[in-house]
Design a protein that fits this description.
The structure holds 2 protein chains of 2 kinds. In chain A, helix 7 runs parallel beside helix 30. In chain A, strands 4, 5, 6, 7, 8, 18, 19 and 20 form an 8-stranded mixed β-sheet that branches. Helices cover 26% and strands 15% of the residues of chain A. Chain A is an alpha/beta fold. Chain B is an all-alpha fold. In chain B, helix 2 packs across helix 3. Chain B is rod-shaped, with a radius of gyration of 26 Å. The N and C termini of chain B lie far apart (77 Å). The chains are: A alpha/beta, B mainly alpha. At the A-B interface, helix 2, strand 1, helix 24 and helix 32 of A face helix 1, helix 4, strand 1, helix 5 and helix 6 of B. Strand 1 of chain A pairs parallel with strand 1 of chain B.
């Protein structure tokens, strides 16, 4: 057929519309030569590469269009069952993120005391870094500390972003562990480490219990500690789905945001008071007998009796039994189940490990902190129970007494929420829970980043267990993680205290064998009882043929920890001169970490610093243009730190997997090769390791054996010799003696016959197929979409789903059925992969003395817990109390009306002249800092800004720092909308534009009005969208379980006008400290 | 300058018979017109290519017509070979298995 042609000379459009066939002007009549000749980028592309958004952890699918080996377009992938083709403003800007000409493309070098960057070729720079690592390691090597073997270096540390691929994190952890580096940390510490503790101790795994699409089945959704609609916009579509189905949506938050606007009810709350609110809800459920009795009796430890030595905060005015005020530490031996052996705690366990444990052979460690990411604490399964729930020492009765004082009136005094509003929330939640209905809690870092953050999540866990909302469709706790693979960077941890799969890093001891380690850390019962097989398989993945039974599978090669080596302790190590070298992988602590100024002062003490990023972020340029140069605290020519900047490859320039917020691994393919010196972190880790190993190949030093014996034989491809990421994934998955990929962690052996880099990811390479790359379209599957990518564990999407059926195995209701026992087939079946042994019948009861999985009965849905129960009361696993208890933040203008204890007695403080704390409540000087600051994320920006403040689209949408204040606060301090304000704490002072809005209401708390200040935390002095960093204001005060920092609630003052420049800035901060009478002892009480 | 104008009439011409739900003729017609096949279908029929009705969320398989050049490999022979090589280079794996029977513990 001959196609008609458009005339070369077109008549007037209106005439064409009137005279031609296109009367509506929608086609030919409206077209010009120019528009007619245009081809959409999607149509002209050579190929479309499947990918995943690199920003938040919703994990939106992306289609990357490539033309002439350049990325020309990126859009949402409609195949994705999670995102259904949608992208938020950040996701939609990834074309600009990845292709921007402003990206750094060459290695830069700053020599010691130098004033400018210099160009350096990539090979030379890699050689120099390898030499620095070897030299520093040699100079700082430590075989023991106080007579206990450590076999490590404290001279080198790393901090990695949570947007790295799992494969990259795996190689970084493997290489650095082989080098004896233990200060390995990432963004997960700063964002959601307390999630792992809270969820892990309650349910046995530290990940969200549900998945994004299941939100649509909720009858009530309470979003608290999260601005879901703005921080995770695409995931929020499942909330609106639920609402369309009739669900009630409640938003509890200090600010009225777009989440509130789409909710049925907004409940303003004072930042940092959420445990009081959740405790009030728990009390409401208990006093009204509104708990789901059959679920609670069968599936939780409500009936279990606790030791008669246990004393509650009711008895001790805010303390639990076992507190040592000198050590600010609990001995949890009185919290145990009745008849249980005395157990020790982990955070400080090295200090008296030998004394307490008899060499690790007689007593198990109870609290393993983040090790509960996949495996609960060890407790006896045969503890006495009272299933009438009447015994005064059964958990339910203890719970009733503990929360009795969390009345609606107390909630009002603490949170500023009226009893009427509280009652409405409580009633809605209860009415939407039970056999026929389920409710869901959604949270983010508004809950995690507190000095008792783990207990915020524990409180929600207790409530959801009481209401029977765990393991059931529409129920659960949705932890919204904010980075593409922050879940993955916990699972395959670049964290100091963990090995892959939440196996704890060993502590230093005089003599400890693998068996001692396993005996001390494994549980007797449940799947964690197989920890030896998981550990041996990991050691085989690290040290291959060198790891044999004769040498304890090279267990001795693992460097040892001796306490906290978290990123905040790394800063102190740098300041005291012990830290010499530092790697930053896509992380910007000069903006993103609490007390940002301390981060920069610490880096100024380093010998060398390696920064890998897209742009020259603040953590790369502080020596040249940091705020301390202006204040006169630092001078460029006095700073001896050698700085290497390596440009990073983007997610479109490398292959690898991200683990999204719901434990789902999704593969993104390399669309184009990175240009110039840009390389992936996989490339960097692999080639750094290759160079170091080559330089040490002839070494006979004992300290070099672990790095020389490390298996490092990865295949490479392409012009850059990029390691094959799928091979690394295959190692993470594991193989048997014949090289066959393993298909499940139940295949792992403890005799050295299996290799597995991360046992919880075993199965992701089943059959030699990259399961994470599976992309069967969502609309060709049911709502579970189990053939889209792969979730740990074992591709289960909704955890603990055995609880979706009654104890006898039948569904609680037709409306909420998910997994059930099929008596004819004698197996569990349903819509999801059963989170239970597939053929273990509901009537199975373990024989006396049963161990391992055999000890889990047919009615125990929480299979990673030693007793198979959801923990209302945590006898072990958490350091600051078995029950969540309200304490005020470290710095608070408000007294704690609930107890005599103002602050969390077990919190971690880091006293330092640059990290002073405020007086609180009625303490003298507290009025100097009278307001509450809370920080938050914007839709258009990302964490410390390295991936958003440099992107023109996003910078234009949110161009500068601002602070939100109420009209009342504005009037009280004379703040004008649009003008400047200065916000001051004992750490620093920042300036921001004032946004006067009723969206952040002032609240009446315990008879006084409390004003709150909201500040987005993304800004810094570099990039296109600039401003002071909110984290300049925050102190380093930490949750004791997770070592996460408290940045979501602290006190401050605000004054109109810009902050002082130069030395005057520090004078202002000092004047405030003097007025408040701040000393080294302020805020340090137990 | 010659410009192709993909009006409905033009697409129907290109399709010859005007309707084909298998998509093959649309691909050929679209190639001639220089537009994606899914768009050709939409122009000709007024409906999205995945069969959903207007107003419903976009069906994912509409993209199969728009994106016929998808790249999403899920398996690599060279990785399988590497796995075998790694396993075979470690005799202790087989020794461990042999020393404990099936290796289970």
């Amino acid at each position: 057929m001959r196609l008609p042609k458009v005339p070369t000379k077109l008549p007037w459009p209106v005439w064409r519309q009137a005279a031609g066939s296109d009367r509506l002007g929608r086609g030919a009549a409206a077209q010009t030569h120019r528009s007619g000749s245009l081809q959409p980028r999607t149509a002209a592309a050579d190929r479309v590469v499947k990918s995943v958004c690199p920003y938040c952890a919703v994990g939106c699918g992306q289609n990357v269009y490539v033309k002439d080996e350049k990325v020309v377009h990126i859009e949402g992938d409609p195949d994705s069952p999670v995102s259904r083709g949608r992208l938020c403003p950040k996701g939609a800007a990834t074309l600009q993120l990845t292709t921007s000409p402003s990206r750094q493309r060459h290695v830069l070098y700053r020599r010691p005391y130098g004033t400018e960057w210099e160009r350096l070729d990539l090979d030379t720079a890699m050689e120099m870094v390898a030499e620095r690592v070897i030299k520093t390691r040699r100079e700082t090597w430590e075989w023991d500390e106080n007579g206990k073997r450590t076999a490590r270096t404290m001279g080198i540390a790393s901090l990695g972003g949570a947007t790295l691929d799992n494969e990259e994190n795996y190689l970084i952890k493997k290489l650095f562990t082989g080098l004896g580096i233990i200060q390995i940390e990432n963004q997960a510490r700063v964002c959601h480490s307390s999630t792992v503790i809270g969820l892990g101790t309650s349910f046995g795994r530290g990940g969200a219990t549900t998945f994004m699409q299941d939100l649509q089945h909720a009858d009530c959704i309470i979003i608290e500690g999260s601005n879901f609609a703005e921080a995770h916009p695409v995931g929020f579509q499942w909330v609106t789905e639920a609402k369309a189905h009739g669900a009630t949506v409640i938003h509890v938050d200090p600010r009225f945001t777009r989440t509130s606007a789409l909710a049925d009810l907004h409940v303003p709350i004072r930042a940092g008071s959420d445990i009081a609110f959740l405790g009030g809800l728990i009390n409401y459920v208990l006093t009204n007998d509104a708990y789901f009795r059959e679920y609670v009796v069968a599936y939780t430890n409500a009936a279990t009796l606790i030791s008669e030595d246990f004393q509650d905060t009711e008895d001790l005015d805010g303390l639990f039994s076992g507190f040592d005020p000198d050590k600010k530490h609990y001995d949890n031996s009185t919290w145990q189940y009745e008849g249980a052996q005395v157990e020790a705690a982990t955070g400080e366990r090295d200090q008296d490990y030998e004394q307490r444990t008899g060499g690790g052979a007689t007593v198990k460690h109870a609290a393993r902190g983040e090790a509960h990411g996949s495996g609960g604490a060890n407790v006896p399964t045969a503890a006495p129970r009272d299933e009438t729930l009447q015994h005064p020492r059964c958990v339910l009765q203890i719970l009733k007494r503990h929360y009795a004082r969390y009345t609606p009136e107390m909630v009002e005094r603490v949170c500023g929420i009226s009893p009427r509003l509280f009652e409405r929330v409580a009633r809605t939640l209860v009415e939407n829970s039970g056999p026929e209905r389920t409710s869901n809690f959604v949270y983010a870092v508004g809950w995690t980043q507190h000095s008792d953050g783990s207990q915020f999540i524990r409180a929600a866990s207790v409530l959801q267990l009481l209401l029977g909302n765990i393991g059931r469709p529409g129920g659960g706790i949705q932890a919204l993680r904010g980075h593409a693979s922050i879940q993955g960077s916990s699972d395959i941890p670049t964290l100091f205290n963990l090995l892959p799969g939440y196996i704890p890093m060993p502590h230093a001891h005089e003599h400890e064998t693998l068996d001692d380690f396993v005996q001390a850390d494994a549980a007797d019962t449940g799947f964690w009882a197989n920890m030896r097989a998981y550990t041996v398989s990991l050691l085989k993945a690290y040290w291959g043929a060198s790891a044999t039974a004769d040498n304890d599978f090279r267990f001795g090669y693992l460097p040892r920890i001796t306490g906290s080596h978290s990123t905040y302790d790394t800063v102190l190590e740098q300041l005291n001169g012990r830290g010499k070298g530092y790697f930053l992988f896509g992380e910007n602590p000069a903006v993103g970490s609490a007390n940002a100024r301390m981060q920069r002062l610490g880096m100024a003490k380093l010998d060398w610093l390696v920064v890998r990023d897209f742009h020259l972020i603040e953590s790369a340029t502080w020596w040249k243009d940091g705020p301390e140069l202006e204040t006169g605290e630092l001078a460029t020519t006095d700073i001896g730190t050698e700085v290497f900047f390596f440009p990073a490859a983007s997610h479109t320039e490398k292959s690898g997997s991200f683990t999204n917020t719901n434990r789902m691994l999704q593969w993104h393919h390399e669309a184009v090769a990175p240009v110039d010196d840009c390389r992936s972190d996989l490339w960097f880790a692999y080639h750094l390791g290759r160079l170091i190993r080559a330089k040490l190949a002839a070494s006979t030093e004992a300290m070099d054996a672990p790095i020389r014996d490390l298996t490092w034989d990865y295949p490479t491809e392409g012009g850059h010799a990029e390691p094959v990421a799928e091979a690394v994934l295959a190692e993470i998955n594991g193989w048997d003696g014949d090289g066959n990929p393993l298909s499940a962690y139940t295949e792992l052996k403890d005799d050295g016959s299996t290799v597995c880099g991360c046992w919880i990811y075993c199965g992701v390479y089943t059959g030699g197929v990259n399961q994470a790359a599976r992309r069967k379209p969502g609309d060709q599957q049911d709502w579970i979409a189990s053939e889209w990518a792969w979730s740990w564990p074992a591709n289960r999407r909704l955890l603990y789903n055995r609880a979706s059926a009654r104890p006898d195995g039948t569904p609680w209701s037709e409306r909420k059925k998910l997994v059930w026992w099929d008596p004819a087939e004698k197996k569990w079946t349903g819509f999801d992969v059963p989170d239970f042994e597939p053929t273990k019948p509901p009537d199975y009861r373990p024989p006396v003395g049963a161990r391992g999985t055999e000890a889990i009965s047919g009615v125990d849905p929480f299979i990673m817990q030693a007793d198979g129960k959801g923990w209302l009361f945590a006898p072990a696993g958490i350091l600051d109390g078995p029950l969540p208890t309200h304490y005020e933040p470290q710095d608070s203008p408000v007294d704690n009306p609930v107890y005599g204890k103002q602050r969390n007695p077990g919190r971690l403080t880091r006293p330092h002249p640059e990290n002073r704390y405020h007086p609180s409540g009625k303490e003298p000087g507290a009025a100097v800092y009278p307001y509450v600051v809370t920080t938050y994320r914007l839709t258009e920006h990302f964490t410390a800004g390295g991936m958003s403040r440099t992107v023109p689209y996003l910078a234009e949408l949110q161009p500068e720092l601002f602070c939100e204040v109420s009209p009342q606060l504005a009037a009280e301090r004379g703040l004008a909308h649009g003008d400047w304000a200065t916000i001051i704490t004992a750490r620093n002072a920042i300036e921001a534009r004032v946004l006067v809005t009723a969206r952040i209401p002032s609240l009446t708390v315990d008879g006084r009005v409390v004003h709150q200040i909201g500040i987005p935390f993304h800004f810094g002095p570099n990039g296109l969208a600039r401003g002071d960093a909110a984290n300049e204001l925050a102190s380093i005060s930490l949750d004791p379980n997770s070592h996460i920092q408290e940045v979501k609630a602290y006190s401050a003052d605000i004054q109109p006008g810009r902050r002082p420049r130069g030395p005057q800035l520090r004078r202002l901060v000092g004047e405030y400290q003097n007025r408040a009478g701040i000393t080294a002892d302020t805020g340090m009480e137990a | 300058m010659e410009v192709i104008m993909p009006t409905e009439r033009l697409v129907r011409h290109a399709l010859r018979d005007g309707h084909d739900h298998e998509g093959q003729d649309y691909e050929r017609a679209a190639a001639r017109l220089g537009i994606p096949p899914g768009r050709a279908y939409m122009i000709a029929t007024g409906r999205p290519a995945d069969g959903s009705t207007p107003g419903e969320p976009l069906g994912s398989r509409a993209q199969s017509l728009v994106n016929p050049r998808e790249v999403n490999p899920t398996s690599r022979d060279d990785v399988h070979e590497w796995l075998r090589r790694m396993a075979h280079s470690d005799a202790s794996m087989r020794q461990g298995r042999d020393s404990t029977g099936d290796g289970a513990k």
